[in-house]
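A further point concerns the way the authors explain their paired sequence and structure data. An entry of this sort, consisting of the sequence and the corresponding backbone structure tokens, reads as follows:
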Amino acid sequence: MTEFITRFASYDGAFQVSQFPTENSHDATHIPDSASWSASADDLTASTADGPATTVLPTVDAARPRRVLEDPPTAARGLGDTLGWTVLGGIVPGVGLLRARHRIAGGIILGVFVVLVGGLAAAYLGARGTVIAIATQPANLRIIAGALVGLAVAWVVVIGVSHLALRPARPTIGRRAAGAAVVGLLSFAVLAPATWGADISYTTATAVNNIFEPAQPDNPNVPQLPVVDPWAKTPRVNILVLGGDSGNGRAAALGARTDSNMVVSIDTVTGATTLFSLPRQTARMPFPKSSKLHNYFPNGFYPAGETDSYTKQTGAYNTNYFLNAMLRDLPAYVPKDILGKTKYLGFDALKLSVGEALGLKIDYFVFINMNGFKDIINAVGGITVNVNYRIPMGGKNYGTSYAVQPTGWIDPGPNQHMTGSRALWYARGRFSLNDYSRMERQRCVANALVQQVSPTTLLTRYQGMASAAQETITTDIPQESLPAFVDLATRMKGTTMRSVVFQNAKDGFFTAAPNWSLVRSQVKKALTETAKSNPEPAATPGSEATPGSTPTPGSTPTPGSTAKPKPQKNAQSTNVTDACAYNPHPYDPKAGG
């Protein structure tokens, strides 16, 4: 009987047979072609139709690579191993499936995850302005909200599928319970921040739509900033910030009187900011000769035929021609299209008039309804200010009617944290005081908001702020300009803010008959003082700083990075930080503080 050594090689489950004669081939007999072969896990045999079975011994093909030792089957995987890989697969989607030998699906999911994370990181670091621009447009924000929810759901599905692929086919009840707990926790860890982010995106989209309007190229009263390097040709931006309310029978927004009139002038390179406050009872507000409003009010905003806003017939000032009445009353005296296509005739008239008075071009306005101001303060978590003299909460000075006593007082003290109504009265209280005292305190509120509200606060309290802002703020800043202002706000932090509060009978200013030429020279001097207090960012080695160019984020000097500027002699403006420092004293109307 011929002895054969038959070699088997396994390839995709099929057996191939090779026959080799031994050295004793002279004893061999031929195995007919009709021989049939069978194989089992224990032995391999060959038989013929008319002969006994012959044992076949499998051998190893030395030319064929050996199989690498593979991972143990799921049945042999322990609970800790299963849960550990489930957690890792929850953190990095696709890893769990790769461990469970689902290489194609796991590889695709992991690749998508890496591309998304890497792409977002690269976009933020390399094109931060573009990311901000995308994230401030309502349509994009709604897409982001939907995408966050969709990705979160897909992520949770991957977590569940990965765990099922990793665990044994017939797990015990204990294993099922442990796996369900881990999958549930991982799912919550993914869904919670994703839904929170989606909610913020949707809330932001709604707030942006309600507060900011799309750009209107045919409106000559609102500058349109370019998308690329928006401040390159705008070295300074001036914003008229108005505060008023619709209480005591006043109309809302468009019909309100402006009790607070402040210009925020910002150097777009350094972020250095100067505040200019005009008294609400300022008369003879001028208009540029190039404006059609000048034809109606050639000598300022006051009754025709009179030399000033003093009404000779009654012997009293006509308050309907004060600065704070312009928003409500001026539109009634002129055609509604006198300034072109605009829905904010009163605000645009104020921008022209205040700008002419100060010698500045006012670019935008922001109106804050003081009835909702306390909601904004609450939304940011409050502000911390110093109180140098007793400030009334409520009350009414004696005027055309009897005086009303305050309901309470804010006593002097350093670093007082205020929220809601208390902060509102800090900014507005004037019983036994005057308008100028609250104008001074309002600059302290502005400085506190700029310096104390951190990015973390904005993120964690954003929804409350957005909700309060929708009910409180009106502005003509276009939606498309928001990214530029977000970037500008980061430059303002850490700068030295200065201010000028124009007061009656002080430094040559008189509310009934202001010398606007003198005022403009004082404004120019104040801007120079602010520039000296805030040096421009140093240019990088080998480069030159271009005037009006946009510095990279973080290039604005931080407090303590340079020597503290020395007090400027005969300064026109005041360092707001110094003016708002704790220095308790009785209020002196003549001294203005």
The radius of gyration is 39 Å.
